[in-house]
Amino acid sequence: MAALRFQLFDGRDVKSMRKPVSIAYFGVDDPVRQLLHRLSSSVAFSALSLLEAAADTGFAHEADCLIFDITDPAANRKWRLFRAGKRISAVIVIAQGAVSLPPRLQARAVVLQKPLQPTALAWGLRKLLRIWAVDGERPAEAAAGGYAHLSRLHLLRAAEWLHGDKEKIECRYASMDEISALDGKGLARASFDPNAYLYGYLRGALKAHGGALHAFAVRLPGGFISLVPFTGMVTVLMEDGKLKELCATRLSLFESPPVVRGTESLEEAGEYLPRRQTSIEGLLWLAALRASQGRFPDSLDITMPRRLLRWPNLSRLADAPYAARISALWAAREMTAFEIADELDIHQRHVFSFASAAQALDLFSEGDGEVERAVADGRWLGRRLFSGARVLTHLLRTGQ
Amino acid sequence: MSELPVLIVGPAGSGKSAAIRSLCGERLVRQQLVLADGDSGVAIGLESGELEIPDVGSLSLLAYPADKSRLLGRFIAPEMHAGVVLLIDGRDEAAIEELRHYLQQISSAEPLPLAIGVTHLDLGLRKNLDALALQMTDFGLHCPLFRIDARQRRDVGVLLEALLLSMYVAEADGVSVDRLAGFTEPLSSGFCS
After folding, report:
1. Which of A85, A299, A314, B9 has its CA 20 to 30 A from that of A399?
2. How high does pLDDT run on average in chain B?
């Protein structure tokens, strides 16, 4: 029987020194013993210092955690002897293969399989002893045993890091000035007419032809967009760069795009064009985002508090700057676009672009506590809540 | 360094291990934890991976086994897990029932930030997503629901990003901080005693 005694110590403030954490073990083989000793100098436990190692069963009874190897032939006998003494609340059982736990294990327990890895042992110790933070940064409210969750700033940084790409679109919209919600002229300057862009035209075409059973296509400069109603999918036959360019161009710059019925002529014409499939949702999101260029649709009252009916499916939609952050806030509370920009400390143009794309997918509540009232009344918003693949259905029903 | 443990749950084959591998690399740590079940203990086998986030801390992802899903509600604890990612296999005909089952288990525990990923949906089975989404509404949930490929780092990253930002907003509302503060004996009732 041996015991190791660790001490959790915050070097900056002696008063915050904690009660030493002691770990006793018996029946473990040399590799495990070496592992325990190495833990004191590992990265995960750098703030724990090894104080003592002694062969003393009485000492072990004071331990915060007991480690024993159940594969040791004498394990059961040692266990019976041990549990006759003072109760211990946390036990790590080292096993191999099927686990047969000791009888009357009156403790929190973690079973780790041989061969034991340092990370597994550190994980087990942290689980049992609830040592989630070892650098003294544990928030005061979690001192009684909770883990040290990341601070709000860290959550943002972590989210940013997970996202990977830098905010690429910043440079494209960078000329837009910030405006006040009370500045009528500024609001007029920052709005645009969706019907003047491909985004508005596509919604019109879907409204007019989406009820048909057969596929139809929109002929555009440089290619086609083909749609099979009720599948929710579109086939884009043009260069990717060309589509993005078209989305950002006013329709008056080229002839009104004719709608072609059927797919036979399309197949022939589109043989030489690159093609890719996407969802209606994805296409409308991209088209609205590109048309917006930091502005908002004139059909959307940007000064009215609103809430997102659902999160946009960001894993399958084109990247929009700060889209995840804006979604998180707008899905949680009813706010105006100006409040979102203030709260997140980002440029308004990013919120306006997001609002344009979200409106294209019919993601906004009508405001005035619509979502909250629906929840409070125990009813939900039915089909409006999850437009997703139902964008087409919605267009056909409302024509908006 | 701070650590943020996130529990990944879902039925067998939904992509829990694949999601951890796509973010944390191939090497997963396997361990067991014993949870009380009546008079005896039940060993819960967990797979975990850690993702170091520079200058922030580490994200610890723990995959909870599908065959112990009935104990999930007792396993989840706010001071042990910062959030939950639920993965549902969109190909499964019983996906809706699976979602309901897991949401029932999760909602029986203390509320935690939740993000839902629907996997294997890139074969064009679109209607499932709406049907799944409607189930969320029965539970009054307003959480991210994304279609993801668990093998794609970007997809899993976007889902986790959404989860972290939900935590960020919840903490701004003062919800999480208060909730986390109050729990000092998290699993003591669940473990053998």
Report:
1. A314
2. 76
DSSP line for A14-69 = GGGPPPPEEEEEES--HHHHHHHHHHTTSSTTTTEEEEEEE--HHHHTT-SEEEEE
Tokens of A339: 């409040």
**Which one of B20, B28, B32, B122 makes the best mutation probe of the A interface by having the most chain A beta carbons within 10 Å?**
B32
Contacts of A325 in chain B (CB under 8 A): 165
DSSP B13: T
CA distances to A207, A230, A359, A360, A396 from A212, rounded to whole Å, are: 10, 9, 25, 22, 11
Q: Which has more confidence, A246 or A160?
A: A246
Closest CB to A315 among B53, B140, B158: B158
SS3 A323: helix
Reported as a pLDDT band with limits 50, 70 and 90, residue A164 is: low
Q: What is the mean pLDDT of chain A?
A: 68
ipTM for the assembly = 0.84
Which pLDDT belongs to residue B31? 75
Residue A371: closest C-alpha in chain B: B142
For residue B55, is pLDDT > 90? no
State the pLDDT at residue A1.
Answer: 46
Position A181 confidence tier, pLDDT thresholds 50, 70, 90: confident
Size of interface A-B (CB pairs under 8 A): 215
Residue B56: per-residue pLDDT: 72
pTM: 0.70
What is the widest separation between alpha-carbon atoms in chain B? 49
Query: CA A278, CA A280: separation in Å to the nearest integer?
Result: 7
Q: How would CATH label the architecture of B2-189?
A: 3-Layer(aba) Sandwich (3.40)
- All residues of chain A having their beta carbon less than 8 Å from the beta carbon of residue B143 are 311
**What is the nearest CA distance from A96 to chain B, expressed in angstroms?**
11
Give me the residue spans of the domains in chain B: 2-189
Which ranges of chain A would DSSP assign to H, the alpha helix?
30-39, 57-60, 75-83, 118-129, 152-163, 170-173, 184-189, 198-209, 240-247, 264-269, 280-292, 323-332, 337-344, 348-360, 370-376, 391-398
Give the nearest partner residue to B146 out of A110, A313, A371, using CB atoms. A313
Strand A21-26 to strand A65-69: parallel, antiparallel, or no bridges (unpaired)?
Answer: parallel
Instruction: Tell which A residues from 381 to 400 touch B, by Cβ distance under 8 Å.
Output: 381, 385-386, 388-390
- According to the model, what pLDDT value does residue A176 have? 65
Report the percent of chain A where pLDDT is more than 90: 6
Residues 6+ apart with CB under 8 A from B27: B49
pLDDT of residue A127: 66
Write out residues 320-359 of A within 8 Å (CB-CB) of B. Answer: 324-325, 327-329, 331-333
Under the banding of pLDDT at 50, 70 and 90, the label for residue A57 is very low
